[in-house]
Amino acid sequence: MTSSISHHALTPADAETMEQLRAIFAGNPKLTLEPASRSAFDGIMSQAPAPDGVSFEQGAVGGVPGWWARPDAATADSVILYLHGGGYVIGSAAAYRNFVGHLARRAGVVAFIADYALAPERPFPGAVDDVRALLDGLAATGFRRIAVAGDSAGGGLALASVRAGAAQAHRIVGIVALSPWIDMLLSGETMVTRAEADPLLSRESLAGAAEAYLVQTGRDDDRLPTLDADYPTMPQVLIHTGDAEVLLSDTLEFAARAELAGLDHEVHVWDGMTHVFPSSFAMLQAGAEALENIGAFLAERLSPPAGKRVLVLGATGGTGRAIVRRLKDLGHVPVALVRSPEKATGLDAIIVQGDARDPAALDKAMAGVDAVISALGTPISPFRKVTLLSTATEAVIAAMTRHGVDRLVAITGIGAGNSRGHAGFLFNWIIMPLLLRKVYADKDRQEAVIRKSGFDWVIVRPSVLNDKPGRGAVQALIDPTRFNGGTIARSDVADFVVDQIESDAFVGKTPLLTW
């Protein structure tokens, strides 16, 4: 896990360039975040040189207008959603085209630069509503991997989209924030300590923008950027910021809290650099280096895996571990949702902590997934009703629907449903009724939920499993310590189940598969 702050020294060449830029800044008043500044701000941002091999076209996503940046030979199914800066008051997609085009070219994917709602014409929650519509629209268009990037207010808006639930509903695989404005209370110490060093922004200008954007809305609204974010629900975050800007504290405090929460994040602080310096990549070595780093981050997050990304539920069990090993052997990328990381020791998979019945945990684990394998188990109970399998499966199917995943392979276990007749008299009529009848009743409900899902599903019903199939069915069944043993090896089941990820041979078959 990446969780460090990298500090970058000011180079002599950049020191000279910044001295010249500061001389220019000194002759002009600081930027005002009000509609009258829109033309001047767009003029500055549009000075970025146009990228080679990238075409631009106007368009709309989810009803929100903007510009597409389309590199030649872009990776399919992946997209960058870019949210421009400007304090929620100024800025435009057209002005950011060239800058974002360079990001898109380096990442090798298309980008959509959004003209989201600006104040005072459309104050809060206009921008938030537009981002939700944008993410809905990108998902509906068929994009399976989405990275959200933004600068200044757009960077804060990108982070807020996760807190507001967008990450749980869409395939956001990464967030990039440049000099993000996260603390709407403007309480960071660098609002004071960097006031003289920052030639662009001030606490006063940001306070005016906040007032125009929020109007009567309190700054503790859950949909706003905040340092009290729900970090465990976030995908990987990359931040670049300058050391000479009033918003520096926002990044440093975010990094400190992300570290404590265990969020995979990467923060770069550049000495001598001012607000959103990567946009000056043509003039500053620091800007060019930051741009390359951002492009590499986006390319890594948005590139399709060599194999399929497969969520495995019940991965810490014997069969689940065999499934994970088989996925790895075939070049797939297993993701394991586990309640206890300690139980996942030695499991060669991407580990996501959480419960299979928790929508937030499922959404985090489901990001970018191509298929789901369920090897869920449940404790035996002859006394109380068992519901874990069916309720978890309902939650899994709801999450798959949100993320556009349509392949589900489920092991519904030892002797379930129509396969009960394959285990022999002792198992079916004595052991199972006494110990497993409530489990099997829930397995029946689980299968009914799957059949109604409308997905491409395969239900696998191995009669009984055993790591040592050579013992023989009768010997395994009469041995109380091996009552769930039998003649089917877990590795054989794992091989068959994993094969169903890419095969349609048994999709939706009835009667369902048994051994």
The number of distinct β-strands equals 18
Number of helices: 16
Rg (CA only): 27 Å
Q: Overall 3D geometry? A: elongated
Low-confidence runs of at least 5 consecutive residues: 415-422, 465-486
Strand content: 15-25%
Give structural notes.
With 515 residues, the chain is α/β, with parallel strands linked by helices. 38% of the residues lie in helices and 18% in strands. The protein has 16 helices and 18 strands. The protein has a 9-stranded mixed beta sheet, with helices on both faces. A 7-stranded parallel beta sheet has the order 12-11-10-13-14-15-18, sandwiched between helices. Helix 3 packs across helix 10 and helix 4 crosses helix 5 (153-163). It starts with a strand and ends with a strand. The active site is at residue 152.
In short:
The protein has 515 residues and is α/β, with parallel strands linked by helices. Helix content is 38%, strand content 18%. The protein has helices spanning 12-26, 38-45, 93-107, 126-141, 153-163, 166-169, 190-193, 203-214, 248-261, 285-302, 318-329, 359-366, 388-403, 425-451, 473-478, 490-499, and strands at residues 5-8, 54-61, 64-71, 78-83, 110-114, 145-151, 172-178, 236-242, 265-270, 309-313, 333-338, 350-353, 371-374, 407-411, 456-461, 465-466, 488-489, 513-514.
Task: Give the tags.
16 helices, alpha/beta, nine-stranded mixed sheet, seven-stranded parallel sheet, 515 residues, 18% strand
Summarize the helices and strands and which ones pair or pack.
Elements: E1 5-8, H1 12-26, H2 38-45, E2 54-61, E3 64-71, E4 78-83, H3 93-107, E5 110-114, H4 126-141, E6 145-151, H5 153-163, H6 166-169, E7 172-178, H7 190-193, H8 203-214, E8 236-242, H9 248-261, E9 265-270, H10 285-302, E10 309-313, H11 318-329, E11 333-338, E12 350-353, H12 359-366, E13 371-374, H13 388-403, E14 407-411, H14 425-451, E15 456-461, E16 465-466, H15 473-478, E17 488-489, H16 490-499, E18 513-514
Parallel strand pairs: 1-9, 4-5, 4-6, 6-7, 7-8, 8-9, 10-11, 10-13, 11-12, 13-14, 14-15, 15-18, 16-17
Antiparallel strand pairs: 2-3, 3-5
